Protein backbone atom coordinates (compact mmCIF):
# COMPACT_ATOMS: atom_id res chain seq x y z
CA UNK A 1 0.00 0.00 0.00
CA UNK A 2 1.29 3.49 -0.76
CA UNK A 3 2.43 5.47 2.26
CA UNK A 4 2.62 9.14 3.05
CA UNK A 5 6.22 8.99 4.29
CA UNK A 6 9.33 6.85 4.17
CA UNK A 7 9.60 3.82 6.41
CA UNK A 8 11.85 4.38 9.42
CA UNK A 9 13.23 2.03 12.07
CA UNK A 10 11.11 1.89 15.23
CA UNK A 11 11.76 0.80 18.79
CA UNK A 12 12.12 -3.02 18.65
CA UNK A 13 10.18 -3.18 21.93
CA UNK A 14 7.05 -1.58 20.43
CA UNK A 15 3.78 -3.38 21.23
CA UNK A 16 1.08 -4.38 18.77
CA UNK A 17 -1.29 -1.54 19.70
CA UNK A 18 1.35 1.14 19.11
CA UNK A 19 2.54 -0.60 15.96
CA UNK A 20 -0.97 -0.51 14.54
CA UNK A 21 -1.42 3.16 15.36
CA UNK A 22 1.94 3.94 13.74
CA UNK A 23 1.10 1.93 10.61
CA UNK A 24 -2.36 3.48 10.15
CA UNK A 25 -0.84 6.96 10.41
CA UNK A 26 1.35 6.28 7.37
CA UNK A 27 -1.47 5.56 4.94
CA UNK A 28 -4.29 7.72 3.64
CA UNK A 29 -7.36 8.36 5.78
CA UNK A 30 -9.54 6.51 3.27
CA UNK A 31 -7.31 3.41 3.41
CA UNK A 32 -7.07 3.57 7.19
CA UNK A 33 -10.85 3.66 7.60
CA UNK A 34 -11.21 0.61 5.34
CA UNK A 35 -8.64 -1.61 7.08
CA UNK A 36 -8.78 -0.30 10.67
CA UNK A 37 -11.14 -3.02 11.94
CA UNK A 38 -9.13 -5.80 10.28
CA UNK A 39 -5.87 -4.65 11.86
CA UNK A 40 -7.33 -4.46 15.35
CA UNK A 41 -9.12 -7.78 14.96
CA UNK A 42 -5.70 -9.36 14.47
CA UNK A 43 -4.20 -7.42 17.38
CA UNK A 44 -6.97 -8.33 19.83
CA UNK A 45 -6.13 -11.98 19.20
CA UNK A 46 -2.76 -11.48 20.96
CA UNK A 47 -3.46 -8.38 23.06
CA UNK A 48 -2.47 -4.79 22.34
CA UNK A 49 0.37 -4.91 24.91
CA UNK A 50 2.09 -7.89 23.28
CA UNK A 51 5.49 -6.95 21.83
CA UNK A 52 5.57 -7.34 18.07
CA UNK A 53 9.07 -8.81 18.21
CA UNK A 54 7.88 -11.64 20.45
CA UNK A 55 5.48 -13.01 17.83
CA UNK A 56 6.56 -16.24 16.14
CA UNK A 57 5.92 -17.52 12.66
CA UNK A 58 4.01 -20.49 14.09
CA UNK A 59 1.67 -18.20 16.02
CA UNK A 60 0.91 -16.19 12.89
CA UNK A 61 0.37 -19.42 10.95
CA UNK A 62 -2.03 -20.66 13.64
CA UNK A 63 -3.98 -17.39 13.42
CA UNK A 64 -4.57 -17.83 9.68
CA UNK A 65 -5.52 -21.49 10.18
CA UNK A 66 -8.52 -20.50 12.32
CA UNK A 67 -10.25 -19.43 9.10
CA UNK A 68 -11.18 -22.99 8.21
CA UNK A 69 -13.44 -22.03 5.30
CA UNK A 70 -12.05 -19.54 2.83
CA UNK A 71 -14.44 -16.74 1.92
CA UNK A 72 -13.85 -13.55 -0.01
CA UNK A 73 -13.95 -11.61 3.28
CA UNK A 74 -11.52 -13.89 5.17
CA UNK A 75 -9.01 -13.77 2.31
CA UNK A 76 -9.24 -9.98 2.24
CA UNK A 77 -8.69 -9.85 6.02
CA UNK A 78 -5.62 -12.09 5.94
CA UNK A 79 -4.05 -10.12 3.08
CA UNK A 80 -4.44 -6.91 5.11
CA UNK A 81 -2.69 -8.59 8.06
CA UNK A 82 0.12 -9.76 5.74
CA UNK A 83 0.79 -6.18 4.61
CA UNK A 84 0.77 -4.97 8.23
CA UNK A 85 3.31 -7.60 9.28
CA UNK A 86 5.48 -6.83 6.26
CA UNK A 87 5.49 -3.18 7.34
CA UNK A 88 6.62 -4.15 10.86
CA UNK A 89 9.56 -6.02 9.33
CA UNK A 90 10.51 -3.04 7.15
CA UNK A 91 10.58 -0.90 10.29
CA UNK A 92 13.12 -3.25 11.85
CA UNK A 93 10.73 -4.45 14.56
CA UNK A 94 10.89 -8.14 13.55
CA UNK A 95 13.87 -10.15 12.30
CA UNK A 96 11.85 -11.70 9.49
CA UNK A 97 8.66 -10.95 7.60
CA UNK A 98 6.03 -12.76 9.68
CA UNK A 99 3.49 -12.06 6.95
CA UNK A 100 5.07 -14.89 4.98
CA UNK A 101 3.59 -17.32 7.51
CA UNK A 102 0.01 -16.26 6.72
CA UNK A 103 -1.65 -19.06 4.78
CA UNK A 104 -4.44 -17.75 2.55
CA UNK A 105 -6.79 -20.42 1.25
CA UNK A 106 -8.43 -20.25 -2.15
CA UNK A 107 -12.08 -19.21 -2.29
CA UNK A 108 -14.20 -21.89 -3.90
CA UNK A 109 -16.64 -20.97 -6.66
CA UNK A 110 -19.47 -22.32 -4.49
CA UNK A 111 -18.55 -19.98 -1.61
CA UNK A 112 -18.33 -17.00 -3.95
CA UNK A 113 -21.74 -17.74 -5.45
CA UNK A 114 -23.29 -18.10 -1.96
CA UNK A 115 -21.84 -14.77 -0.83
CA UNK A 116 -23.03 -13.04 -4.00
CA UNK A 117 -26.57 -14.33 -3.57
CA UNK A 118 -26.64 -13.18 0.05
CA UNK A 119 -25.37 -9.69 -0.84
CA UNK A 120 -27.85 -9.30 -3.70
CA UNK A 121 -30.86 -10.49 -1.69
CA UNK A 122 -33.37 -7.61 -1.46
CA UNK A 123 -34.27 -6.09 1.91
CA UNK A 124 -37.95 -5.29 2.36
CA UNK A 125 -38.57 -1.97 4.09
CA UNK A 126 -41.39 0.46 4.78
CA UNK A 127 -41.27 3.92 3.21
CA UNK A 128 -40.74 5.47 6.65
CA UNK A 129 -37.88 3.11 7.46
CA UNK A 130 -36.22 3.88 4.12
CA UNK A 131 -36.42 7.63 4.70
CA UNK A 132 -35.11 7.27 8.27
CA UNK A 133 -32.07 5.37 7.00
CA UNK A 134 -31.37 8.08 4.41
CA UNK A 135 -31.40 10.73 7.15
CA UNK A 136 -29.08 8.64 9.33
CA UNK A 137 -26.67 8.21 6.41
CA UNK A 138 -26.59 11.96 5.79
CA UNK A 139 -25.89 12.63 9.48
CA UNK A 140 -23.01 10.13 9.53
CA UNK A 141 -21.44 11.66 6.44
CA UNK A 142 -21.55 15.06 8.12
CA UNK A 143 -19.34 13.59 10.85
CA UNK A 144 -16.53 12.77 8.41
CA UNK A 145 -14.86 16.23 8.30
CA UNK A 146 -14.98 16.46 12.11
CA UNK A 147 -13.27 13.07 12.54
CA UNK A 148 -10.66 13.94 9.92
CA UNK A 149 -9.81 17.11 11.83
CA UNK A 150 -9.58 15.19 15.12
CA UNK A 151 -7.14 12.75 13.52
CA UNK A 152 -5.07 15.57 12.02
CA UNK A 153 -4.72 17.28 15.39
CA UNK A 154 -3.94 14.04 17.24
CA UNK A 155 -1.38 13.00 14.59
CA UNK A 156 0.53 16.24 15.22
CA UNK A 157 1.83 14.53 18.37
CA UNK A 158 4.69 12.39 17.05
CA UNK A 159 4.88 10.20 20.18
CA UNK A 160 2.75 7.39 18.78
CA UNK A 161 3.44 5.12 21.78
CA UNK A 162 1.38 7.39 24.06
CA UNK A 163 -1.01 8.91 21.52
CA UNK A 164 -4.30 7.63 22.90
CA UNK A 165 -6.34 10.45 21.24
CA UNK A 166 -5.12 9.36 17.81
CA UNK A 167 -6.05 5.73 18.43
CA UNK A 168 -9.48 6.77 19.74
CA UNK A 169 -10.10 9.06 16.77
CA UNK A 170 -9.17 6.34 14.27
CA UNK A 171 -11.37 3.82 16.08
CA UNK A 172 -14.27 6.29 15.92
CA UNK A 173 -13.58 6.85 12.23
CA UNK A 174 -13.59 3.12 11.55
CA UNK A 175 -16.90 2.72 13.39
CA UNK A 176 -18.56 5.55 11.42
CA UNK A 177 -17.24 4.33 8.06
CA UNK A 178 -18.49 0.84 8.88
CA UNK A 179 -21.98 2.21 9.58
CA UNK A 180 -21.93 4.24 6.36
CA UNK A 181 -21.01 1.20 4.25
CA UNK A 182 -23.68 -0.94 5.93
CA UNK A 183 -26.43 1.68 5.41
CA UNK A 184 -25.40 2.34 1.80
CA UNK A 185 -25.55 -1.40 1.11
CA UNK A 186 -28.97 -1.65 2.78
CA UNK A 187 -30.37 1.27 0.77
CA UNK A 188 -28.96 -0.22 -2.41
CA UNK A 189 -30.73 -3.54 -1.74
CA UNK A 190 -33.87 -2.01 -0.24
CA UNK A 191 -37.24 -2.83 -1.72
CA UNK A 192 -39.82 -0.37 -0.41
CA UNK A 193 -43.14 -2.10 0.22
CA UNK A 194 -46.22 -0.01 -0.43
CA UNK A 195 -49.76 -0.67 0.73
CA UNK A 196 -51.58 -2.97 -1.65
CA UNK A 197 -55.11 -1.65 -2.13
CA UNK A 198 -56.25 -5.07 -3.25
CA UNK A 199 -55.48 -6.47 0.19
CA UNK A 200 -58.38 -4.61 1.75
CA UNK A 201 -58.17 -5.00 5.51
CA UNK A 202 -55.57 -7.76 5.47
CA UNK A 203 -52.35 -7.08 7.39
CA UNK A 204 -49.42 -6.00 5.22
CA UNK A 205 -46.01 -4.51 5.90
CA UNK A 206 -46.28 -1.15 7.63
CA UNK A 207 -49.66 -1.97 9.21
CA UNK A 208 -50.31 -2.14 12.96
CA UNK A 209 -52.33 -5.00 14.45
CA UNK A 210 -53.84 -5.18 17.92
CA UNK A 211 -54.09 -8.76 19.11
CA UNK A 212 -55.11 -10.56 22.30
CA UNK A 213 -53.91 -13.76 23.91
CA UNK A 214 -56.87 -16.17 23.76
CA UNK A 215 -55.90 -17.64 27.15
CA UNK A 216 -54.88 -14.65 29.29
CA UNK A 217 -56.77 -11.97 27.38
CA UNK A 218 -53.65 -9.77 27.34
CA UNK A 219 -53.69 -7.22 24.51
CA UNK A 220 -50.67 -6.03 22.55
CA UNK A 221 -50.05 -4.07 19.35
CA UNK A 222 -47.41 -4.86 16.73
CA UNK A 223 -46.34 -2.97 13.61
CA UNK A 224 -45.12 -5.18 10.78
CA UNK A 225 -41.84 -3.89 9.29
CA UNK A 226 -38.76 -5.04 7.36
CA UNK A 227 -35.97 -6.91 9.16
CA UNK A 228 -33.71 -3.82 9.26
CA UNK A 229 -36.41 -1.76 11.01
CA UNK A 230 -37.44 -4.24 13.70
CA UNK A 231 -37.44 -2.93 17.28
CA UNK A 232 -39.33 -5.17 19.64
CA UNK A 233 -39.24 -2.58 22.45
CA UNK A 234 -41.24 -0.23 20.24
CA UNK A 235 -43.57 -2.95 19.04
CA UNK A 236 -42.02 -3.10 15.56
CA UNK A 237 -41.56 -6.72 14.49
CA UNK A 238 -39.92 -8.13 11.40
CA UNK A 239 -42.07 -9.63 8.69
CA UNK A 240 -39.75 -12.66 8.72
CA UNK A 241 -40.06 -13.26 12.49
CA UNK A 242 -42.36 -16.08 13.70
CA UNK A 243 -44.97 -13.55 14.89
CA UNK A 244 -44.59 -11.46 11.73
CA UNK A 245 -45.10 -14.46 9.45
CA UNK A 246 -48.12 -15.54 11.47
CA UNK A 247 -49.70 -12.05 11.30
CA UNK A 248 -49.07 -11.36 7.63
CA UNK A 249 -52.17 -11.33 5.40
CA UNK A 250 -54.55 -12.02 8.30
CA UNK A 251 -57.87 -10.15 8.91
CA UNK A 252 -59.72 -8.82 11.94
CA UNK A 253 -61.28 -11.75 13.81
CA UNK A 254 -58.71 -14.29 12.61
CA UNK A 255 -57.20 -16.61 15.22
CA UNK A 256 -53.61 -17.75 14.68
CA UNK A 257 -50.87 -19.65 16.49
CA UNK A 258 -47.19 -18.91 17.11
CA UNK A 259 -44.59 -21.44 18.25
CA UNK A 260 -42.67 -20.13 21.28
CA UNK A 261 -40.07 -21.72 23.60
CA UNK A 262 -42.80 -22.11 26.23
CA UNK A 263 -45.14 -23.82 23.77
CA UNK A 264 -47.78 -22.88 21.20
CA UNK A 265 -49.43 -19.49 21.82
CA UNK A 266 -52.79 -18.56 20.35
CA UNK A 267 -53.90 -15.02 19.48
CA UNK A 268 -56.92 -13.28 18.01
CA UNK A 269 -56.72 -10.16 15.84
CA UNK A 270 -58.88 -7.36 17.30
CA UNK A 271 -58.01 -4.42 15.10
CA UNK A 272 -55.85 -3.41 12.11
CA UNK A 273 -54.55 0.09 11.40
CA UNK A 274 -53.45 0.49 7.80
CA UNK A 275 -50.26 2.39 7.02
Architecture overview:
This protein is 47% helix and 14% strand. The protein is an alpha/beta fold and 275 residues long. The chain has 3 domains: 121 residues, DNA polymerase, domain 1; 71 residues, Helix Hairpins (Orthogonal Bundle), CATH 1.10.287; 77 residues, Transcription elongation factor, GreA/GreB, C-terminal domain (Chitinase A, domain 3, Roll). The strands form 2 sheets. Strands 5-4-3-7-6 form a 5-stranded mixed sheet. Strands 1-2 form a two-stranded parallel ribbon.
Task: Give the secondary structure arrangement, pairings included.
Layout: H1 16-24, H2 29-46, H3 57-65, H4 72-90, H5 109-120, E1 123-125, H6 127-155, H7 164-189, E2 190-192, E3 208-213, E4 219-225, E5 236-238, H8 242-247, E6 255-260, E7 263-273
Parallel strand pairs: 1-2, 4-5
Antiparallel strand pairs: 3-4, 3-7, 6-7
Spatial arrangement of strands, main beta sheet: 5-4-3-7-6
DSSP helical segment count: 8
Quickly count the domains.
3
CATH superfamily of the largest domain: Tyrosine recombinase, N-terminal domain
Tell me the strand percentage band. Answer: 5-15%
Biggest β-sheet, characterized?
A: 5 strands, mixed
Structural class: alpha/beta
Low-confidence stretches: 1-6, 114-119
List keywords for this structure.
DNA polymerase, domain 1; alpha/beta; Chitinase A, domain 3; Helix Hairpins; 275 residues; elongated; five-stranded mixed beta sheet
Question: What is the compact description of this entry?
Answer:
The chain has 275 residues and is α/β, with parallel strands linked by helices.
